[in-house]
Amino acid sequence: MTASTVAVYDAIATSYAARRAEMPPRLVQLAQRALAIVRRSGADPIAIADLGCGAGRDLAFFEREQPSAVTVGIDASAAMLEAARPRVHGRLVEGDLRQLPLDTGSQHLAWACASLLHLPKQQLPAALAEVRRVLAPGGVLAVTMKAGTTEGFEPNRSETWAEPRIFARYQDGELATALEEAGFSRISVSPPATDERGETWLHAIARVPDAPAAAR
User: Fold this and answer.
1) How many domains does the chain have?
2) What is the pLDDT of residues 109-154, one digit of tens each?
């Protein structure tokens, strides 16, 4: 994420938290789907990392859905993390999605909702490699991206209080290829769908391959 984009989120953290207090139904469905996959793996406790956790809305949801989970939220904006603190119980860490401050193989579920899209496209492979590194064998990545083909600074079309931020938009095949090239398997990318604010999104779930039988 560029320094200017981080600065925007630092400036709008309080109003952002108030305006985005509830997860939209389609995100709830994606989160529940990802969590169900991890539950079936038998992991206990489940380790969940919210990558680009913002003001903590989604991390708080996971904590309600899976009270025994060990959670961590990572964001580049210190002000967003401060806004998240009253809402979540887990660790909150200021960090870079391209160099995650997490141990290798330590997470069962990585949630990247509208966060990786703030990286220039040329930096996505490094970020996805980091996500794969921190996920355990069989671990799940759930990611949302804005749909499209453009890359660059955009004004916020659905809100009036945000300065331009960098956005990289993806087509469904492009996102699936990036996930495959990063070593993920069992990749599922939804068709583009428009949300209540008029933005068109891709939702994807991908998994780290299971450990070989002899290594389990």
Assistant:
1) 1
2) 999 999 999 999 999 999 999 999 999 999 999 999 999 999 998 8
**Own/partner pairs, 121-129, CB within 8 angstroms, 24+ separation:** 121/151, 121/168, 123/98, 124/168, 124/178, 125/178, 125/181, 125/182, 126/98, 127/97, 127/98, 128/178, 128/179, 128/182, 128/184, 129/182, 129/183
pLDDT of residue 87: 94
216 in any annotated domain:
no
Q: How many helices (H) and strands (E) does the chain have?
A: 6, 10
Please name the residue ranges forming H helices in the chain: 3-19, 25-41, 57-65, 78-84, 124-134, 172-181
Euclidean distance between CA atoms 69 and 43, whole angstroms: 10
Give which of 112, 102, 206 is closest to 168, Cα–Cα.
Answer: 112
CATH code, domain with 177? 3.40.50.150
Q: Residue 33 CA to chain centroid, in angstroms?
A: 14
Whole-structure pTM over 0.70, yes or no?
A: yes
50 within 8 A of 111, measured Cβ to Cβ: yes
